[in-house]
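Dear colleague,

Thank you for sharing your sequence with our group. We've completed the structure prediction you requested, and as agreed, I am returning the results in plain text so they can be pasted directly into your records. Please verify that the sequence below matches your submission; if there's any discrepancy, let me know and we will rerun it promptly.
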Amino acid sequence: EEEEEEEESEEEKKSESEEETETETEQDTESETESESEPEDAPLPNKKDNLTKRLKRHETRVNALKKGNTLLMANVDRLKDDVLKQREESMTLQKELDSLIDDLE
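Please find the predicted structure tokens below.
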């Protein structure tokens, strides 16, 4: 039971960090539309600043997505390990049950 509680706690933490990433992305999208409204005839330094800001936001978003993907892959690996352990335990219990049934016969 303690393991299950720890796993649930880990999953909650991962879910919270994924939600934070989604919120950051939503905020980026809102501010991105503001910077994209730069007029095409704006002076070059303004365009450069605008593009630099957009580049920084996109890099931040990509890094947040990579972090989210890493967390998800770690979660998948952990769940695969759990499934493997459960299969092994199931096989052990099945052998034990078969042995007990044979003893009864």
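Summary note from our side: The chain has one domain: 2-104.

Kind regards,
the structure core
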